Amino acid sequence: QVQLVESGGGLVQVGGSLRLSCAASGRTFSRYVMGWFRQAPGKEREFVARVNWSGGSTNYPNSVKGRFTISRDNAKKTVYLQMNSLKPEDTAVYYCAAGQGGTTTRGSYDFWGQGTQVTVSS
Q1: What are 89-105's pLDDT values in tens digits?
Q2: From the CB of residue 20, how many other CB atoms can be counted at a distance below 10 Å?
Q3: What are the CA-CA distances from residue 64 to residues 49, 75, 117 (Å)?
Q4: φ, ψ at 118 (rounded to 5°)
Q5: Over the stretch 102-115, which tens digit does the pLDDT of each residue have?
C-alpha cells in the first residue's frame, strides 16, 4: 500500500515556475513507477509525466516536453515535478500516482494522491 500527498501548487503568472512535490509512505516506494497527471475543469485526466523506479527514464507528452521535468528521490520517498514557462492551459488539478507497471495511461497506476491546484494567470 502506498499513500501519496502532493504539495506545491498555487497561483503563478504566465511564464512563471512551480515545483510540485509528492511524498509517499510505505517501504516499497522505489519499486513503483511514479507519474503525474492533471485534470482541468470539464476535461479528462491527462498524462503529464512519468519516471521509472531508478529515475533514469522519463516520459512526457508533447504539450509539456521541454518545460516540465519529473524527478525522484527514493531516499526521501518523494517525486517532483518542476514546471517552467507555465501557460494558462497548464491550469488544472495535478495528481501524483504510483504503479508497478505505470505507463502513460491512468489505468496503469494503482495509487493516487488527492491532488494540488495549479492556476496560471495571464
Answers
A1: 999 999 999 999 899 99
A2: 24
A3: 8, 27, 17
A4: -120, 125
A5: 999 999 999 999 99
